[in-house]
Specification:
- This is CheY-like receiver protein.
- Keywords: Phosphoprotein, TPR repeat.
- It comes from Marinobacter algicola DG893.
- InterPro entries: CheY-like_superfamily (IPR011006), Sig_transdc_resp-reg_receiver (IPR001789), ST_Response_Regulator (IPR052048), TPR-like_helical_dom_sf (IPR011990), TPR_rpt (IPR019734).
- The chain is built from 27 helices and five strands.
- It is mainly alpha-helical and about 550 residues long.
- Among the domains are: about 5-150, 3-Layer(aba) Sandwich (Rossmann fold), CATH 3.40.50; about 275-365, Alpha Horseshoe (Serine Threonine Protein Phosphatase 5, Tetratricopeptide repeat); about 445-545, Tetratricopeptide repeat domain (Serine Threonine Protein Phosphatase 5, Tetratricopeptide repeat).
- Strand 3, helix 4 and strand 4 (about 95-100) form a beta-alpha-beta unit.
- Helix 7 runs antiparallel to helix 8 (about 170-185), helix 17 (about 330-350) runs antiparallel to helix 18 and helix 20 (about 395-410) packs antiparallel against helix 21.
- The radius of gyration is 30 Å and the shape is elongated.
């Protein structure tokens, strides 16, 4: 296929609408003139992000030429991110990032939202005509397909891809990738996999290997998916989508620690991707790695300053993780974590002032931060400031969980348990929430104590399985010194004591110790996963004592 002629280029430029985004008026005027010389007619220009987003919200734009650096506030990456998130650009629209900066950090960050191309300043007509002309030619050739995808008419888009392949060999790669994505969208994984395998049999293309990994995950073939994606990441360390998909595969395998490590590497390569930092923070929190979680939440909050993805939940999560890090620690580092938590929560109250429950949730965590630093007067004062809002029947479940956690820290164990029991009844159809309630009832302590108790529990189980009953009893008792009401730990100890009773001449004191363990669990909610086990062991103990 021959290159478009000058007249053809002028005609194609002239049919489209353009938006130039740059904070320097001289550059906007210069770009307008260059575009006109290329044949463009419908050209609009704006100086900042808010004007750009607003213009795209009310006008169809075929081509956006956006500078990366726009002074104070949102940059070009933020604009692209928001336009993609709000679906203000059609698939046929072109977004070109214009920049004098070529740092890896900038390029990697912008690439996360897939601009159609980059233009490096200074720009002249020949450069723009060549770079944009090729993109416009591709846009026009594939326009019918993209229109159907915008309409979510995927079967028709698939049909058009198949029809276009023989007539447009120049765009074969785009067509094959789009076709595979469309098959995936409609759930036809076998056809999608065949396309990727056919492509890979001819040429080792990263997108085909990524797509293959995605389909393997969809088919629950996590081992092969992880192996495929590990190799892809190894050979293409800047291919960020592969890191995200590999982390997903590892999580599905039940390997959250390895998944976290992959996301940490990804965050180093591309430090400006808010959603990846959020995923890392969430994963690290579930892994009880609070230093990493705090660092990732801190980055999430920072990147959210001008992002469409900014959210009060990020501030709350950062405050919670810093609270965990500072709790029960009198070091200067812990005090700094506590101060940072209070600062970030106060900033959140101002930033999201009109949002429901913001003050309530902020003050609950602030109270816990103060309690963790043994400042009980300040802790109570924080709760007093929201006394009128502390109605468990009206509070959001997440706020109730936070409130219960704070009550435990204040030594109000009975109030905390009552609150959690009522919440379990109110949300009995929410298994994820019930699991959180169980965890808090079992381990109403800081994350360091949780880690210690869990480690001792594992050691106790190993000792029991090895037949070292006395060592198991000692280990479980040490764990229970940390979390006295932990259901699984108490029941584990009961089982060991029963085994000791069976293996000895029938020491009745062992059974009395079992009774004391079970008495600790008298208020265990029926919804708790250990409740059936509790009933079973209680009946067994009654039989042994009769």
């Amino acid at each position: 296929m021959t290159e478009p002629t000058t007249n053809a280029i002028g005609a194609s430029f002239g049919k489209l609408s353009y938006l130039v985004v740059d904070d320097f008026e001289n550059f906007r005027l210069s770009m307008r003139q260059i575009l006109r010389n290329c044949g463009a007619d419908k050209i609009e220009s704006v100086a900042n992000a808010s004007a750009a987003v607003q213009y795209c919200a009310y006008n169809h734009v075929d081509v956006v030429l956006c500078d990366y650096n726009l002074g104070e506030g949102k940059n070009g990456q933020h604009i692209l991110e928001e336009l993609r998130h709000k679906k203000l650009l059609k698939r046929s629209s072109l977004f070109l990032m214009v920049t004098a900066e070529t740092s890896k950090e900038m390029v990697m960050g912008a690439r996360e939202y897939q601009p159609d191309g980059y233009l490096t300043k200074p720009i002249n007509r020949a450069m723009l005509e060549k770079r944009l002309g090729g993109l416009i030619a591709q846009r026009n050739a594939l326009l019918p397909i993209n229109r159907e995808i915008d309409r979510e008419n995927f079967p028709e888009a698939i049909s058009l891809c198949l029809q276009t392949l023989p007539s447009q060999p120049r765009y074969k790669t785009w067509l094959m990738k789009t076709l595979a994505d469309l098959y995936y969208q409609v759930g036809d994984f076998s056809h999608a996999l065949k396309i990727h395998d056919d492509v890979l049999s001819q040429r080792d293309l990263s997108w085909a290997r990524l797509g293959r990994g995605k389909i393997l995950i969809a088919n629950q073939n996590y081992d092969d998916a992880a192996a495929t994606l590990k190799e892809l990441v190894s050979q293409h360390p800047d291919y960020m989508e592969a890191y995200d998909l590999l982390a997903e595969a590892l999580e599905k395998q039940g390997r959250p620690t390895q998944a976290q490590q992959i996301l940490e590497k990804a965050a180093e390569h591309s430090p400006n991707a808010l959603l990846r930092h959020k995923h890392l923070a969430t994963l690290a929190s579930s892994n009880q790695d609070m230093p990493t979680a705090s660092k990732a939440w801190r980055q999430t909050v920072s990147l959210g300053t001008y992002s469409i993805h900014d959210n009060s939940e990020h501030y709350l999560a950062l405050g919670q993780s810093l609270s965990d890090l500072s709790e029960g620690d009198s070091s200067s580092e812990a005090a700094a974590h506590a101060d940072e938590a209070l600062t970030i929560l106060r900033r959140m109250e101002k930033r999201f002032a009109g949002q429901e429950d913001i003050k309530l949730r902020s003050r609950i965590i602030q109270s816990r931060v103060h309690a963790g630093q043994d400042r009980m007067n300040e802790a109570q004062s924080a709760l007093d400031s929201i006394a009128d809002e502390l109605d468990p029947d009206l509070m959001h479940p997440d706020a109730c969980l936070d409130y219960a956690k704070t009550l435990f820290r204040l030594g109000r164990e009975k109030d905390a348990k009552g609150l959690l029991n009522a919440l379990a009844i109110r949300c009995s159809d929410n298994p994820l929430l019930l699991q959180k309630i169980e965890s808090l009832l079992d381990e109403p302590v800081g994350f360091r104590q949780k880690l210690q108790a869990r480690s001792l529990n594992r050691d106790g189980i190993k000792a029991f399985e090895a037949g070292n009953l006395e060592e198991a009893v000692t280990t479980f008792n040490r764990a229970l010194d940390i979390v006295p009401s932990h259901a699984a730990l108490n029941l584990n100890l009961v089982q060991v004591l029963m085994k000791q009773h069976q293996d000895t001449t029938g020491d009745r004191e062992l059974l009395k110790r079992c009774e004391r363990c079970l008495e600790k669990l008298v208020d265990l909610p029926e919804q708790h996963r250990q409740h059936r086990r509790l009933i079973s062991l209680r009946k067994k103990l009654e039989g042994m004592m009769s």
